[in-house]
Structures are given as C-alpha cells and as structure tokens.
Write a structure and sequence with these properties.
With 358 residues, the chain is an alpha/beta fold. Helix content is 43%, strand content 13%. The protein folds into two domains: 3-169 and 338-355, Rossmann fold (3-Layer(aba) Sandwich), CATH 3.40.50.2000; 183-336, Glycogen Phosphorylase B (Rossmann fold, 3-Layer(aba) Sandwich). Helix 1 (20-34) packs across helix 12 (339-355), helix 6 (193-205) packs parallel to helix 7 (223-230) and helix 6 (193-205) crosses helix 10.
Length: 358
C-alpha cells in the first residue's frame, strides 16, 4: 500500500475544537484511505495568523523551518505523495513544498486560494508564501467555482486543476424524515461571520408571522449573543446545544426545512448534511454556498431578511414543494457529494503522480 503524508496548516484533523475545516480534513483522510493508500498525519504544527501580525508570521516561519528539518529526516522513506489541505494567506503551507523538494516526491493541494489582494498589507508575507506553495503543487483540487477563478488566472506551468465537489464521508444517504416539523439551523456560535448569519436569521424571523418553530443546533463563545438575538421569539425558538452525530441526524430528520444564510461560508458542510436528509434549504445566493445547493432561486444577500422570510413562508405553506425539493436534493447529494464520487475523482487525479514513484 502506497504511503501518503497529509498536512493541514490551519487546523489539524486531531484538533479538539469542532469546525468545518477539521471535518473536511478528516474527510479527506478518509478519501485517501478509500483510494487504497496509507495516509498518515505528517505534522500538527499550526501555521495560522488571524490578525495579520508580522512578528507572529516570523516566529511561525522559524517553527516551520525546524519542522522541515525534523521531517526531512523522519518522514518514512516509502512516502510517495504529500497532500496539504487549505493553503491560503492566513495559513500558508511552509512545510510541504520544502519536504517534497528534499525528498523528491509529488506535492498536491486541496482547497487552496490565491489572494492577490493580500500581497500588500498585514498578510503580505504569508500571502506570498501561500502563492509560492501553490506554485509548487502539481495538482490542486478546488472545491468551488469561486476558488477556481484565481487558481486558473495564476496557474503555474502545466499544473492540473481538478474539481473535487465538497462531500460527506458516507457511502449512502440517511433516512429522510417527513419534513413537517420545526425549521432547523445549525452553526458554531462565535463572533464574526457565524454571528452575522445568526443576526440575519433573527431579523428574518421578525418578518414571518403565523405559526412557526425553529430549532438551533450549535454552541460556542457567542451563545449568549445568539440567545439575546432570539429572545423576542420566546419558546418558538429552541436551543439544542452542540449535538453529536446521532442527535444531529435526528434533528435533520424531524425538521421541515434548513435555514442558514451562509455569510462568507467557503461552502458549508451543514448544507450537504441537511440535503442528504431530504431537507429543502433556505439560504442566500453566495459564492461557494451556491456550489452545494440544489439548483433553484435563492435570494441575493442585498435582498435581505424579507426575501428569506418570503422563501420560508412559501415552503412552510406547501408540503408538496418541501417534499419534492427535499427528494431532488437527496438525489443530487447521492450523485455528486458522497464518498464514492470523491474517491473516484481523487484516485484518478493522483494516479499519474504515484506512477512516477518507485
């Protein structure tokens, strides 16, 4: 069995804090294994600068150089491929390209972005590092059409750009529910984009009227802020807290629809999970998000909460449409966004690279 080294500079798949990045890293390791390869986590060194701090970046580069020295000696000799997940201007891969040069093995990236707008300013050094790492990759798997724009524009040489649609780490669909329960939303409760989505939800509820219920799955440091936003709606809103996979699946199973605006989501694993369970989705038409949604009309962000509320009212009033949209979403997920499809795409793209290795 060929050996593959895996690395996620922003967040290790072993990180104890749940997030979409952690889940995607874990899912990718599953795909590599399903492709018949032995995958091991090469490093857990976190290279991440949230605020744009040149001194922090300098210290992280020094740590990365030490890690390169260690791995050049310790990486198993039969390693045939290196794969890095999520190289971008806040979390560049400062390790993989150097190891691959030293050991003469192919270098691959998944979900990388080229942010030319960041080549000036507080993240300029890390942005250049991320670009350099992109240049070193023989194959870059992109997850959304939005990422493809700059990857294609800045493509290095004959580098292969391969579409790998976001996927769930399962081979089949969960049972579909009756779609006649409460609405459901799910998201980490933290400041920034997640809290912005919760604000939009709270404003949307004010436009609904009538008899409705909402369950919210998730927890985090901004929970009190989210609870304050939902306080005007009393017991019409129920907080479920952070759920394990079984209880999360039960929440999808009893819901009527899934609501999440998707502010600055790269794509959103929750959309895949909800649609796999047969839920119609209410979301805004945003880059990345639109790549994982069943085709249809979704309101533009500048249409605001009233447009989301109008979509909700139509779905809540029409059970047949809810069932039809949910069934169509399940078919889309089964065809394009489960483990078998992802494994086939990945295996076909890396096979030529593995053939070059002894």
């Amino acid at each position: 069995m060929r050996r593959v080294a895996f690395y996620a500079p922003m967040k290790s798949p072993r990180n104890p804090v749940p997030s979409g990045d952690r889940e995607m890293a874990r899912n990718l390791m599953t795909v590599i294994h399903e492709a018949g390869l032995e995958v091991s986590l090469a490093s857990e060194l976190r290279i991440y600068d949230r605020t744009g701090d040149p001194a922090l970046q300098s210290g992280l580069r020094a740590s990365a150089r030490s890690e390169v020295d260690r791995l050049t000696e310790e990486l198993p000799q039969d390693t045939a491929l290196w794969i890095t997940y999520h190289n971008y201007y806040k979390a560049p891969d400062l390790i993989g390209p150097a190891i691959c040069r030293a050991r003469n093995i192919p270098y691959v990236q998944v979900e990388s972005t080229r942010a030319t707008s960041r080549l000036d300013g507080a993240w300029s050094g890390f942005a250049r590092d991320a670009h350099t790492a992109c240049d070193a990759a023989e194959v870059i798997f992109y997850l959304t059409q939005n990422d493809l724009i700059t990857l294609q524009r800045e493509r290095f040489g004959d580098q292969a750009l391969v579409h790998l649609p976001p996927f769930l780490p399962r081979t089949g669909l969960p049972p579909a529910g009756p779609r006649n329960g409460p609405m459901l939303c799910a998201g980490m409760m933290r400041e920034g984009d997640k809290l912005a989505s919760y604000r939009i939800i709270a404003e949307t509820l004010a436009h609904l009227g009538g008899d409705w219920r909402l369950e919210i799955a998730g927890d985090g440091p901004a929970r009190a802020r989210v609870e304050d936003l939902m306080a005007p709606y009393g017991d019409k809103v129920r907080f479920l807290g952070e759920l394990d996979p079984a209880r999360m699946q039960a929440a999808y199973g009893r819901a009527a629809l899934f609501l999440w605006p998707g502010v600055n989501e790269a794509f959103g694993m929750v959309y895949l999970e909800a649609q796999a369970a047969g839920l119609p989705v209410v979301a805004q038409d945003r880059p990345g998000v639109r790549d994982v949604l069943l085709s249809g009309h979704y309101p533009a962000p500048d249409a605001g909460p009233p447009a989301l509320a109008s979509m909700i009212r139509r779905l809540l009033a029409d059970p047949d449409t809810r069932l039809a949209r949910g069934a169509a979403a399940r078919k889309m997920i089964e065809r394009d966004h489960l483990l078998p499809a992802a494994t086939n795409i990945f295996a076909a793209a890396v096979a030529p690279l593995l053939e070059t290795q002894p």
